[in-house]
Amino acid sequence: MSRKIAQVFAVRGKDFLGGGRVSTEIKTMLRELGIAPEIVRRVAIATYEAEMNIVMYAEEATITVELTPQAVRVVAEDRGPGIPDIGLAMQEGFSTATPEMREMGFGAGMGLPNIKRNTDRLSITSTAGRGTRVEFALDIH
Questions:
Q1: Spatial CA neighbour of 46 closest among 137, 108, 124
Q2: pLDDT at 96 over 70
Q3: Around Cβ 100, how many Cβ atoms within 10 Å?
């Protein structure tokens, strides 16, 4: 692949039935483009975690995937409550999930740590009452 490919996906908050659709579409797209299975797996995990955080907490968002010959880059930008303490949110096991979210199997406090574990670069910025931007990349070797 010698050019940049980019695609933007919309994600709706509280759409638990549709949660995971975007990460699945991105995984399929990367497979069809011949990206190494290990990279596809890691991108799918990180994207799923970002997508489900959007579903659980935000009102709406976009997830943009960009593929260049060097890397896969994903940017998830939402309109929502923001993350008050990113350092705390990065700690394994920390969760602000509601009891209803926990009943559905979410809220183990592994979302952001799993994104970090599966990516080569991660940046998170957040503004209380406005939203969060999660950007990560994986190098294509």
A1: 137
A2: yes
A3: 11
Arch. (CATH architecture) of 5-139: 2-Layer Sandwich (3.30)
H-only helix segments in 58-136? 86-89, 99-103, 111-117
Contacts of 120 (CB under 8 A, 6+ apart): 71, 136, 137, 138, 139
CA 119, distance to chain mean position in Å, is: 11
Residue 130 is encoded by which pair of tokens? 């406005």
Rounded CA-CA distance 107/65 in Å is 25
Token code pair at residue 46: 């990180």
The Cα–Cα gap between 120 and 136 comes to 7
Q: Are 134 and 50 in contact (CB under 8 A)?
A: yes
Residue that wins the pLDDT comparison between 110 and 1:
110
CA distance 81 to 66: 26
Yes or no: say if 7 and 29 are a contact pair by the CB < 8 Å rule: yes
d(CA 72, CA 87) in angstroms, rounded, equals 25
Query: And the tokens for 11?
Result: 């994600």
Using one digit for the tens of pLDDT, what is the confidence trace for 35-52? 999 999 999 999 999 999
